[in-house]
Amino acid sequence: MDKAILAVIREKGLLLEKDIYDLIDGFRDSHSAMVFLEQLERISGEKMITRGVLTKNAGYVKEFVRQLPGDDKTFVERVFVKLGVHLEVRTERETTAPPREKASSQQDYKVFYAETVPYKKLEVKDFVGHFRSRFQQLQRILMYRPELQKNLISINKISAERASLSLIGIVKDKRITKNKNMIIALEDLTGEISALVKFDREDVFEKADELQLDDVIGIKASGNKDMVFVHDIFYPDAFNLEKTRFNNDARIAFISDTHCGSDRHLSKSFNKFIDWLNSDDAVAGKIRYLFFVGDTVDGVGVFPSQEEVLTLKSMHEQYEQLAGYLRRVPKDITIFLCPGQHDATRVAEPQPIISKAYAPQLYELENVVLVTNPALIKLVEGDKEFKVLMYHGASIHTFINEIKSLRLMRAHQCPAKAVEQMLKRRHLSPTHGSASGVYIPNAETDPLVISEVPDVLCTGEVHRMDISSYNGVLILTGSCWQAQTPFEEKVGNEPDPAKVPVLNLKTRELKIFDFRDETEVDERGVWVGGDDVSD
Questions:
Q1: What sign has the CA pseudo-torsion 69, 71, 76, 78?
Q2: Measured at the alpha carbon of residue 406, what is the angle toward residues 400 and 411, in degrees to the nearest 5?
Q3: What angle do CA 239, 244, 477 make, to 5 degrees?
Q4: Minimal CA–CA distance to 395: which of 370, 372, 374?
Q5: Domain spanning 146-234: which superfamily?
Q6: What tens digit of pLDDT does each residue of 424-466 get?
Q7: End-to-end CA distance of the chain
């Protein structure tokens, strides 16, 4: 084995299983071998490198092998096959549906469902594995940030001597000292360190102030094993540098929050939308996909005394009303439909597809594709992929409540600003246990990590149409088909109903269509359809 590689093994105190030793020894490029070992030790936190370590860190291994030069890549892939190590990461379930009538013969789609763990008794080890997986997924992204590659070190390797360094860790806690500085408790798989942000470093302190518990971040700092002083903070962040454009000018429409069964459901406005889909309108005729981002019905027992504000008292009746609408959608339009908190599935995320026990009608509609919340849909034309990430958006409220800048701008009126925080963190809901951040742990992979940067991130939840662009990613927060509820009136929230954004896949031009029926609801979302329906 190359002397430089042996020096790395001795310096780091590594023990290599014989098969792993032979693998490293077979690299033609010794530098690649050293980088592979060093980074594998760093992200796994293991000193004994076995084939099991490779399997547990398959995401890193797959990405590393992909970037190897030809000869080494072929060699490593053959060895992995011999070792029984699979480079395909089982993080998503993929299904491919056949092309729809009228669609281009080369146009298709793939659905990547979130991994929804079957109902079972949860144990502490499930949460430990979940956060370990999340850390490793986001650590791999952060490791490719050039700002962090110099002096990148794990926490347990920080010496007693003061030095400049880069760290990647998960935010365990943060607090303000009596001197108005901030101390962040940061941990990785090897240990924990206190990181101090000085109050007079306004740019850095502002970033630190926005940190959420369980965020995975990178820092540039100086200090020793007792404490480090933060000079800058980096998020995994999302960048879409190549905007996909199809040759076919098919269109996508986005809707959410119909709340069928509610006494404030806007049936006249929604029927105008359905009628438009069936019209001779040039834009409507080119819509091939409809993304329906949750809260399709109002539900039963979602909040106290809900029965008083329902016109349809059972889930079956509510889903029958929804199915009645969807049956009238042209069959050449594929509808991707995910649940929200009001739908017939568990509230904890990731949410499974809507239950057949409550909504059998939806399973009978051939152009409806039921997906999880969240779900990634890849529209395909030849070798091009246009990625749409659907997430109903429960965590939007947590971001707004916890981040000062969002509170000051009253981000419930411009919710796309909150969704930008998801892309910055590469996570849809980082803080577990918050009012809107309850999720089921998954020891293999955190399904709320944004592993692939989408072309579009669409949400619902806040009942306001809003648009933004973040590093090349189009953000769409959905309008609604429900007039202002008593609760919204109480907290001063004004919905923006009956708006439908339509995106051209060829030009990426976005148009907003307004289907509000003025006899039903006014511009502020207030019901005007007669007597107060909540009385």
A1: positive
A2: 75
A3: 65
A4: 374
A5: Nucleic acid-binding proteins (2.40.50.140)
A6: 999 999 987 665 667 888 888 899 999 999 999 999 999 999 9
A7: 82
